[in-house]
Amino acid sequence: MTHVLLIGNGAREHAIAETIRRSQREPRLYSFMKTNNPGIASLSEEVCLGRYDDPDAVVAFARESDVAFAVIGPEDPLSRGVVDALEAAGIPAVGPTRSLARLETSKSFTRNLLEKYGIPGNPLFRNFRSADGIEAFLDELDGIVLKPDGLTGGKGVLVQGDHFRTRDEAFDLCCGILKSHPGVTVEEKLEGEEFSLQCLCDGRTVVATPPVQDHKRRFADDRGPNTGGMGSYSAADHLLPFLDVSAVADGLAITRQVAEAIRRETGVPYKGVMYGGFMITRSGVKLIEYNARFGDPEAMNILPLLRTDFIDICRAIIDGQLDRLDIVFEKKATVCKYAVPKGYGLPPDHPDAASTSSRIEIGDVGEARLYYSSIDRRPDGLYMTPSRAIGVVGIADSLGEAERVAEKAVNAIRGPVDHRRDIGTEPLLRKRIQHMKILKGEST
Ligand code: AMP
Ligand code: GLY
Question: Which class in CATH covers the domain with range 3-94?
Answer without folding.
Answer: alpha beta
